[in-house]
Write a sequence for this structure.
DNA sequence: TTGTAAGCGTTATCAC
DNA sequence: GTGATAACGCTTACAA
């Protein structure tokens, strides 16, 4: 087993509440001497400096660093020594300017607050790193305008390629990407005739599979806690999956009670409470993701309801939380890591011009745990 | 209440297991037409193009974008129209090269796998964004060499300033930072006479406070699950805090059983199992962070031990998990958001040259939940 | 208020 | 294999 570790960095934008006036008091400033960082004006070594020190031209130094094969062993050694001695580091900006290439890939995800995208992104990152690329991530809290802004920001920063989540977004954005010629790949969802190549899974089919299972356990009163559907094809797909399963079982899906809310434990709890007011009371609450589901289970306990005896709960994503919750959460297991890994390879191929981008659908599985019971 | 959202992006490096040979099969490629992204060779507009279009010089365009006040309203309008019309975006690399400034701040944190740093980092990010800075984050999985590598990478990328976690690191690294004149700030820990200014809390005192509380409930057989102490001043500080509390209560801290392990739910579980073999069996297991503690509680359930009746458990950090766990986890509540917010302000001041960096210690509190009981 | 022009540190195309 | 040298797109004195 490999010892994996993540290393990543993000650039970010937050439409934050203006905390300008927040005066924080009550803290003591300990008796620590003020560590003064003399911003040493010492000039940084440049390619020129290295070239001088090694008695070669800048071109040769550049080659040593970028295509060592094209340089004689002797020269290379001389140069590398000079590099060491001077502590030279190439200037990223200059490099980007001259080569018009950054070896940077940008990923724009909805959120970093919960672990939904963490695992997949880590795998993505590992895949990129293995090929010498660096990842830049931005998130947008499910706000389309911000997503657009972030996409522009990453492109401006010189991203060679972009990873996006889901298909639904303004046409402008797609046109912008085309115009700039920035290769982009969509993950976490597939659909027919996508605007961009996609690697992911079928959210509707996945949830439909889970709903089938739920129905097969005898449940007939389903309640749903869905993520916000507007502009989110994963959320709407999942909801559609439940409806489809009901129809397939000859049930009236139009009567399905749905609580739509932003992802978040608290929101899941609140939505669950509302659903429990219904008569007949749902025997199972299917949630749009694990975070909502955990909130629902918390609320159930709060209300003195036993899961799964009094009410069953299901999630989606199979993040760590699903395993830790009590009881364990029955959920849809998404191939996070494989999705990330394959997305990395695919996107790099696109950036390299090796491929125009193949779409790929990955299979999902249902992970059964204690939160879903049979109707007696 | 402001509607906060995060947006961030990360650059990353992972020393990943080589998955090169991994051949993944069994996936179907759906009937989706290959979305061919014509990498439109359309050239991007430059400052020159805008200048031409607006019939002004490049200098004026640059000023419009950077110091609009220094340009007449009329010209500005003309220029902005041209910018819009052409869809111009400044080239980040060129800008960094010319101005030697990126308005980018780097943060190097130990991990993104769990939520320990997420909240603080988000606040940090918001603070930066409010002042026009962008965040770049890297993580290193608690490996000092990688931290050093990441620091260099972020500096190479032109970070104007750096946020680091904890104080302990090789002298080289500090010298490197000084040499490059990159302002840096340490968060999550304070210590006397720090090498760099720091904003954080006293890990030892915090844990000592919790241990005091534990002892006051009658516990005398404490077991500890600590994070890896080597090179981690937070982990070692916390452990020292427990020892200090014991001494203060006249107990023999040298007899304290300590399981040292990397952070992780599984690891916490395993360590807990080992502690439960001891005789006398600990009546309380104090953990270095919430993740370990949740693992410990899972294992307790696995072993049929009731928390807190059979054994108590405590954590540190007060992340969301601590609230979701059953029973709720008694833990040390860290001022994540305030730390992040203040760090942002402080670091920006340092970057701007307004301040040499003031160290600041923030207070922590104990959050009491069900996992810690009284000894009967 | 605006324009001119000299860099900024690389890469890449040529010759040699 | 190696060395000149011309871009790359922007900022910023300095001049006008």
């Amino acid at each position: 087993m490999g010892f994996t570790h993540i290393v990543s960095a993000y650039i970010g934008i937050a439409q934050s509440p203006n905390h300008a006036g927040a005066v924080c008091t009550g803290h003591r400033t300990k008796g620590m001497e003020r560590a003064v960082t003399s911003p040493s004006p010492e000039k940084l070594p440049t390619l020129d400096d290295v070239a001088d020190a090694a008695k070669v031209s800048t071109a040769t130094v550049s080659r040593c660093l970028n295509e060592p094969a094209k340089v004689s062993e002797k020269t290379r050694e001389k140069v590398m020594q000079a590099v060491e001695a001077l502590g030279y580091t190439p200037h990223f900006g200059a490099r980007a300017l001259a080569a018009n290439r950054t070896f940077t890939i940008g990923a724009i995800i909805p959120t970093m607050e919960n672990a939904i995208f963490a695992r997949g992104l880590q795998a993505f990152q590992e895949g990129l790193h293995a090929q010498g690329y660096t990842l830049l991530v931005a998130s947008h809290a499910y706000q389309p305008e911000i997503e657009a802004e972030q996409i522009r920001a990453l492109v401006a920063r010189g991203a060679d390629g972009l990873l996006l989540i889901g298909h639904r977004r303004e046409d402008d954005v797609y046109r912008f990407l085309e115009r700039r010629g920035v290769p982009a790949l969509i993950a976490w969802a597939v659909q027919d005739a996508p605007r961009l190549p996609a690697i992911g899974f079928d959210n509707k089919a996945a949830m439909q599979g889970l709903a089938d299972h739920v129905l097969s356990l005898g449940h007939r009163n389903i309640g749903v806690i869905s993520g916000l559907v507007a502009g989110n094809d994963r959320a709407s797909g999942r909801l559609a999956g439940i409806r489809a399963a009901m129809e397939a079982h000859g049930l009236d899906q139009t009567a399905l009670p749905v609580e739509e809310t932003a992802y978040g434990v608290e929101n899941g709890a609140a939505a669950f409470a509302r659903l429990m007011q219904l008569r007949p009371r749902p025997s199972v609450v299917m949630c749009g993701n694990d975070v909502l589901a955990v909130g629902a289970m918390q609320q159930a306990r709060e209300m003195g309801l036993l899961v799964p005896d009094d009410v069953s709960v299901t999630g989606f994503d199979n993040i760590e939380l699903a395993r830790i919750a009590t009881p364990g959460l029955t959920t849809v297991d998404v191939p996070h890591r494989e999705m990330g890994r394959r997305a990395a390879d695919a996107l790099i191929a696109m950036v390299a011009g090796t491929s125009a981008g193949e779409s790929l659908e990955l299979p999902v599985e249902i992970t059964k745990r204690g939160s879903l019971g049979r109707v007696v």
User: Anything to note?
Assistant: Residues 1-41 of chain A have pLDDT under 50 and may be disordered. Residues 46-48, 58-59, 62-63, 66, 90-91, 93-101 of chain A lie near DNA strand C (CB under 10 Å from a C1'). Residues 336-352 of chain A form the longest helix (17 residues). Chain A touches chain B through 124 residues (CB under 8 Å).
